[in-house]
Amino acid sequence: MKKSAAIAPVQYSTHIQLQS
């Protein structure tokens, strides 16, 4: 579960960078 929580923000940041 800890891994998922650490990956969640990373994937979100990537999505924002792709949209930018």
Automatic annotation (TrEMBL):
This is Uncharacterized protein. It comes from Anguilla anguilla (European freshwater eel).
